[in-house]
Amino acid sequence: MKAMDKAFTRVDETFEAIRDSLNQQAINNIARKLAQDLRRAQQARIRSQKAPDGTEWTPRRRRVTRIQERIRFIWNNEARTLKNWHHDTGKYGRTITGWDEDKNNIRTFYRDDIDRFLEIRTRRINQDSTKRVPMFVKLRTARYGRS
Known about the structure:
It comes from Escherichia coli. The chain has helices spanning 2-21, 24-47, 142-145; strands at residues 64-68, 70-75, 78-90, 93-100, 105-110, 114-120, 124-128. By secondary structure, it is α+β, with helices and mostly antiparallel strands.
Protein backbone atom coordinates (compact mmCIF):
# COMPACT_ATOMS: atom_id res chain seq x y z
CA MET A 1 0.00 0.00 0.00
CA LYS A 2 2.91 2.35 0.73
CA ALA A 3 4.26 1.87 -2.79
CA MET A 4 0.85 2.91 -4.11
CA ASP A 5 0.91 6.05 -1.94
CA LYS A 6 4.36 6.96 -3.24
CA ALA A 7 3.18 6.49 -6.84
CA PHE A 8 0.16 8.74 -6.27
CA THR A 9 2.37 11.33 -4.56
CA ARG A 10 4.66 11.41 -7.61
CA VAL A 11 1.67 11.73 -9.96
CA ASP A 12 0.25 14.56 -7.83
CA GLU A 13 3.58 16.38 -7.84
CA THR A 14 3.81 16.03 -11.62
CA PHE A 15 0.30 17.43 -12.14
CA GLU A 16 0.97 20.29 -9.72
CA ALA A 17 4.12 21.20 -11.67
CA ILE A 18 2.14 21.19 -14.94
CA ARG A 19 -0.67 23.23 -13.38
CA ASP A 20 1.74 25.81 -11.94
CA SER A 21 3.29 26.32 -15.38
CA LEU A 22 -0.13 27.13 -16.97
CA ASN A 23 -2.03 30.41 -16.81
CA GLN A 24 -5.63 30.61 -15.53
CA GLN A 25 -7.15 30.65 -19.04
CA ALA A 26 -5.38 27.41 -19.98
CA ILE A 27 -6.53 25.77 -16.74
CA ASN A 28 -10.13 26.84 -17.46
CA ASN A 29 -9.91 25.48 -21.03
CA ILE A 30 -8.62 22.13 -19.76
CA ALA A 31 -11.35 21.96 -17.11
CA ARG A 32 -14.04 22.83 -19.70
CA LYS A 33 -12.75 20.22 -22.15
CA LEU A 34 -12.56 17.61 -19.39
CA ALA A 35 -16.15 18.38 -18.28
CA GLN A 36 -17.44 18.20 -21.87
CA ASP A 37 -15.76 14.85 -22.46
CA LEU A 38 -17.14 13.52 -19.18
CA ARG A 39 -20.67 14.71 -20.09
CA ARG A 40 -20.45 13.11 -23.54
CA ALA A 41 -19.27 9.83 -22.03
CA GLN A 42 -22.09 9.87 -19.47
CA GLN A 43 -24.68 10.68 -22.17
CA ALA A 44 -23.42 7.84 -24.34
CA ARG A 45 -23.54 5.47 -21.37
CA ILE A 46 -27.08 6.52 -20.44
CA ARG A 47 -28.18 6.27 -24.10
CA SER A 48 -26.86 2.70 -24.23
CA GLN A 49 -28.76 1.96 -20.97
CA LYS A 50 -25.69 0.72 -19.10
CA ALA A 51 -24.50 1.17 -15.53
CA PRO A 52 -21.06 2.71 -14.85
CA ASP A 53 -19.62 -0.78 -14.35
CA GLY A 54 -20.83 -1.78 -17.85
CA THR A 55 -23.75 -4.00 -16.85
CA GLU A 56 -27.09 -3.59 -18.61
CA TRP A 57 -29.90 -1.83 -16.77
CA THR A 58 -32.94 -3.92 -16.03
CA PRO A 59 -35.59 -2.92 -18.58
CA ARG A 60 -38.66 -1.02 -17.51
CA ARG A 61 -41.67 -3.03 -16.58
CA ARG A 62 -44.42 -3.40 -19.14
CA ARG A 63 -47.13 -0.79 -18.62
CA VAL A 64 -50.66 -2.12 -18.69
CA THR A 65 -53.43 0.46 -18.57
CA ARG A 66 -56.76 -0.84 -17.35
CA ILE A 67 -59.86 0.90 -18.65
CA GLN A 68 -63.27 0.06 -17.23
CA GLU A 69 -65.82 0.34 -20.03
CA ARG A 70 -69.10 2.26 -19.55
CA ILE A 71 -71.84 2.80 -17.04
CA ARG A 72 -75.07 4.61 -17.93
CA PHE A 73 -77.58 5.84 -15.37
CA ILE A 74 -80.31 8.39 -14.70
CA TRP A 75 -79.23 11.22 -12.39
CA ASN A 76 -81.51 14.24 -11.74
CA ASN A 77 -83.67 13.15 -14.69
CA GLU A 78 -80.63 13.23 -17.01
CA ALA A 79 -79.00 10.25 -18.67
CA ARG A 80 -75.31 10.20 -17.78
CA THR A 81 -72.54 8.08 -19.28
CA LEU A 82 -69.28 7.50 -17.45
CA LYS A 83 -66.31 5.80 -18.94
CA ASN A 84 -63.31 4.41 -17.06
CA TRP A 85 -65.31 4.49 -13.85
CA HIS A 86 -64.73 3.11 -10.38
CA HIS A 87 -66.52 2.88 -7.04
CA ASP A 88 -65.36 4.76 -3.98
CA THR A 89 -66.62 6.07 -0.66
CA GLY A 90 -67.06 9.81 -0.32
CA LYS A 91 -67.80 12.06 2.62
CA TYR A 92 -71.55 11.44 2.40
CA GLY A 93 -71.69 7.87 1.10
CA ARG A 94 -70.75 5.56 -1.74
CA THR A 95 -69.75 7.21 -5.03
CA ILE A 96 -69.09 6.41 -8.66
CA THR A 97 -66.30 8.43 -10.28
CA GLY A 98 -65.37 8.45 -13.95
CA TRP A 99 -65.06 10.42 -17.16
CA ASP A 100 -68.41 12.03 -17.94
CA GLU A 101 -68.73 12.00 -21.73
CA ASP A 102 -71.48 14.65 -21.70
CA LYS A 103 -69.49 17.21 -19.68
CA ASN A 104 -66.03 16.15 -20.91
CA ASN A 105 -64.67 16.09 -17.39
CA ILE A 106 -64.12 13.77 -14.45
CA ARG A 107 -67.26 13.67 -12.33
CA THR A 108 -68.29 12.01 -9.08
CA PHE A 109 -71.87 10.95 -8.39
CA TYR A 110 -73.29 9.69 -5.11
CA ARG A 111 -74.97 6.31 -5.53
CA ASP A 112 -78.00 7.51 -3.52
CA ASP A 113 -78.59 10.32 -6.06
CA ILE A 114 -78.72 7.89 -8.99
CA ASP A 115 -82.33 7.08 -9.86
CA ARG A 116 -81.79 4.07 -12.10
CA PHE A 117 -78.95 2.25 -13.87
CA LEU A 118 -79.44 1.88 -17.63
CA GLU A 119 -76.34 -0.09 -18.62
CA ILE A 120 -73.32 -1.39 -16.77
CA ARG A 121 -70.35 -2.72 -18.70
CA THR A 122 -67.83 -4.04 -16.21
CA ARG A 123 -65.47 -5.59 -18.72
CA ARG A 124 -62.00 -4.18 -18.30
CA ILE A 125 -59.80 -3.48 -21.28
CA ASN A 126 -56.09 -3.99 -20.72
CA GLN A 127 -54.10 -1.74 -23.00
CA ASP A 128 -50.49 -2.77 -23.34
CA SER A 129 -47.99 -0.09 -24.21
CA THR A 130 -45.86 -1.62 -26.93
CA LYS A 131 -43.49 1.33 -27.23
CA ARG A 132 -40.21 0.68 -25.45
CA VAL A 133 -39.32 3.89 -23.65
CA PRO A 134 -35.70 4.12 -22.50
CA MET A 135 -34.99 5.21 -18.96
CA PHE A 136 -33.52 8.61 -18.02
CA VAL A 137 -34.04 10.30 -21.40
CA LYS A 138 -34.25 13.77 -19.85
CA LEU A 139 -31.11 13.16 -17.82
CA ARG A 140 -29.10 13.09 -21.05
CA THR A 141 -30.12 16.65 -21.99
CA ALA A 142 -27.88 19.66 -21.50
CA ARG A 143 -30.09 21.03 -18.73
CA TYR A 144 -29.32 18.12 -16.42
CA GLY A 145 -25.80 17.41 -17.69
CA ARG A 146 -24.26 20.71 -16.63
CA SER A 147 -21.50 20.66 -14.10
